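2024-03-11 09:14:02 INFO queue: dequeued item CCD34 protein, len=139
2024-03-11 09:14:02 INFO validating residues
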Amino acid sequence: MNKQLEKMKENQEYERRKRIAEEKHKEWVQKKTEEERRERKRKVSKEMVEKATRELEKMQLQEKADIKYKEWLKKKRAEEAEKKKKEKEKEKEREAELQEKRTRSEKVFKEWLQNARNKPQPALNGYGFPHGKSTGSYT
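2024-03-11 09:14:37 INFO prediction written
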């Protein structure tokens, strides 16, 4: 009877330890699963933060690039406007020079014309013949 009682107690103790071990194992598995879930959540959260940071940096770089491009374009247009202005000034100078040259040429031509009218006419074909023709025979 004592042996049976002892065996029963041992079996009960074995069953109790087995149940405790199983419960502890279940708790450990549950804890591990919860840790893994939290770790995955943390990783996903970290990745989202990194992605948002990268997107923000990308947007900031794009904004900087846009600003630089607009500044460059503004500078380029100002340079082109300055170039056109200089070309117009050169063209005006050329026109002024041409006009001055024409005016001088006309003045010189008028002076020459005036002087040419006042000069005495040369004898036509000279040689002492009136109007350059002989009036009679030579003998």
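2024-03-11 09:14:37 INFO annotate: The mean pLDDT is 89.
2024-03-11 09:14:38 INFO item closed
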